[in-house]
Write a structure and sequence with these properties.
Length: about 675
């Protein structure tokens, strides 16, 4: 039977899986090499995001914060909370006008009836009702409270007022307890009693927990009695957190109103919640929740700028969403590592910023974990650092990138891949690559096939199973790479390419020519040895000076203990401007002092007498002239390469390979 595949339209929710750890490390490489700090490189990736090799954009925190601020503006422009009181006042005015019309119609009907007694009674009732309407308070809350006890003449006015009161009561209860409004919008004595009991039980549990006492009732007992009022809560903490968020949003709603509007709407809300004990339980719950969740945003307020009136429930909804954005913004702004993003509520991100932002945030939150699980980074004493495997992977990536820039025919005749006389069989093997001599290591090849496909016969070989024996000429080469770390290197964008080249060269030598020696020297005001594992974190120096004399001296001493052909590869973007005096003092001057040039050239002569070839790679030819390095080439017999940062790595690797190919076997 043929395989069957079912396809569905992409809706933005399908998980594409994690990012490849090698791709993540590659994205971090330039920032890591430029800054020398892996934690800083991770933070910069969090801020700026990335694009994976598959073309998927992973949104950075900077873009998310910009989208978050646009979302906040959108919410603030939804409406005008102060306009709600005006709307209610207009509705009440229409109710009163309709009632006055009803009174007038009643009087007209009585007069038209010709019944004197009826007319007298009607006139008395009409006068009484008009007087009551004339004495209605000016404020909305007082007007609602008075009309609640008013005996309407007009049934239409009464129905309209009752509908308004029902709507306002629903708004008040939804503002505090959205999802419970069915129980409070038309409360009867039984419902009110049940609500009082529920809030009293909640308050007792909060107060008992605050005192460290055993809960009575337990959460399970509470939900058994009142669970229908609090749908979706799985634990007491979850329930209290939901209530705190909603009540804090209601408090933010009140604080967002002008003082006059706030006083009137609060009074209106109190008149609608007629049960005094229930109001006391709500106030008690609010106070308890504020102590339990002080960071829920109780003191927050917002400046709304919309035109349409906003009801209390809508205001609380919007204030709640704005509170979510506030907390989200605080977390995103303060996130100093991918792990910190785990505290962000992904559902809220999805709701406010979109599915693509939630997916990107999930990717960013998993950065450190995926790199750690891949064995590329580790935490040492609170600092994130590359593991030895991570350092090797960076070097392999740098080497692969440089090789991809070099024509294959320039590397195809590389000495180490020849077979036959004059070469020793190594104990090491490698995966076969196109162009390698086909010296098949049979047992390792079969082992690879069994590991790939499992035990059993026949063993089926695949090209990726082929393992070949590495061979190497008897010749050995000892190299010291001297890299300029003065301030001008990063200023002219030469620093990162130089570090990439150094890592690629180390990877090439350690992987292909394990008998060879490579030392690394960094130099600015003075020179120092750099171990290969320190390369990713090596930094340029915040001092002036290009002390090539000290670099050559240190390199010569390092090569004195090595055998075979010796060379120093110098990478610099300027002439020598510093030297060390016999007493150890460092002298710097620009333009270079004659004494600096003399002492540097004296060190060139010593290297030449020691049989050390000096090859200089001079960067930034367009901005700097290098007459001094030409003199080095004339005296030492080495070569000078004028190159750019982009081509530096390729030049160094090709020259190293060609230099090694020309070596004669050591006797």
């Amino acid at each position: 039977m043929s395989a069957r595949y079912d396809y569905t339209r992409w809706d933005g929710t399908q998980d594409l899986g994690g990012l490849d750890p090698d791709d993540l490390l590659a994205e971090l490489t330039d920032d890591l090499l430029a800054g020398g700090d892996l934690d800083d490189a991770l933070r910069r990736m969090l801020r700026s995001g990335m694009r994976n090799p598959g073309g998927e954009d992973v949104m950075g925190l900077r873009a998310m914060l910009e989208r978050l601020r646009r979302r906040r503006t959108e919410l603030l422009e939804r409406g005008d909370p102060d306009g709600e009181l005006g709307r209610i006042a207009e509705e009440l005015a229409e109710v009163v006008a309709e009632e006055r019309q009803g009174i007038a119609s009643l009087a007209e009907e009585a007069e038209a009836s010709g019944d004197q007694r009826r007319q007298e009674v009607t006139d008395e009732v009409a006068a009484e009702r008009r007087m009551a309407l004339n004495l209605l308070p000016d404020d909305v809350a007082g007007k609602v409270r008075s009309l609640q006890s008013y005996d309407f003449v007009s049934s239409e006015a009464r129905e309209r007022f009752e509908a308004l009161v029902e709507e306002l009561r629903r708004q008040v209860t939804e503002a505090y307890f959205k999802g419970m409004s069915d129980a409070l919008s038309n409360p009867d004595p039984e419902q009110l009693a049940r609500m009082r009991d529920a809030f009293d039980a909640l308050n007792r549990m909060l107060e008992q927990r605050e005192r460290g006492e055993e809960l009575d009732p337990s959460f399970e007992e509470f939900m058994e009695r009142f669970g229908d009022m609090f749908p979706g809560a799985e634990s007491l903490d979850e329930l209290l957190e939901q209530l705190a968020a909603r009540m804090a949003a209601a408090e933010a709603m009140w604080r967002s109103l002008s003082p006059e509007q706030r006083d009137q709407l609060r009074a209106l809300a109190e008149s609608l919640l007629e049960d005094m004990d229930l109001r006391w339980q709500v106030e008690r719950l609010s106070a308890n929740l504020q102590r339990a969740f002080p960071d829920a945003g109780w003191q927050q307020s917002y400046r709304f700028s919309g035109d349409a009136p906003m009801g209390m429930s809508q205001m609380a909804d919007t204030a709640g969403q704005l509170g979510e954005l506030d907390r989200m913004e605080e977390l995103l702004q303060s996130a100093s590592s991918p792990a910190a993003l785990s505290e962000v509520d992904m559902d809220q991100v999805r709701r406010h910023l979109g599915e693509d932002a939630a997916r990107s945030l999930d990717r960013l939150a998993r950065l450190t974990r995926e790199l750690t699980e891949a064995g590329l980074i580790e935490n040492r004493g609170g600092t994130t650092e590359l593991t030895p495997k991570g350092v090797r992977r960076l070097g392999q990536r740098a080497l692969g990138d440089l090789f991809s820039q070099i024509a294959r025919n320039r590397l195809g005749d590389h000495q180490s891949s020849w077979s036959g006389a004059g070469h020793d069989r190594e104990e090491t093997t490698k995966q076969y690559e196109y162009g390698d001599p086909f010296n098949l290591h049979l047992s390792q090849t079969v082992h690879n096939a069994v590991r790939r496909s499992g035990s059993g016969v026949p063993v089926r070989l695949s090209p990726e199973d082929f393992e070949v024996v590495e061979t190497e000429a008897l010749t050995r080469s000892a190299t010291v790479l001297a890299v300029d770390l003065s301030m001008s290197m990063p200023m002219r964008d030469n620093f990162v390419p130089a570090k990439k080249m150094a890592m690629a060269l180390h990877t090439l030598i350690s992987g292909r020519f394990p008998r060879d020696y490579l030392g690394i020297v960094g130099f600015s005001e003075v020179a120092r040895e750099i171990r290969p594992e320190e390369l990713p974190g090596a930094m340029w120096d915040y001092v002036y000076g290009t002390n090539l004399q000290h670099a050559l001296l240190l390199a010569r001493r390092m090569l004195a203990h090595q055998h075979g052909t010796k060379q120093i590869i110098v990478v610099t973007d300027g002439e020598p401007t510093a030297h060390i005096e016999p007493d150890g003092d460092v002298i710097f001057n620009y333009p270079p002092l004659p004494e600096t040039l003399r002492r540097t050239m004296a060190e060139v002569v010593r290297c030449t007498k020691a049989g050390i070839t000096i090859n200089v790679f001079a960067l930034d030819l367009e901005r700097t002239q290098f007459p001094f390095v030409d003199q080095i080439a004339r005296i030492n017999g080495g070569r000078t390469f004028y190159t750019s940062p982009d081509s530096l790595g390729g030049y160094v690797l090709v020259d190293f390979l060609q230099h090694r190919r020309l070596l004669r076997p050591a006797g």
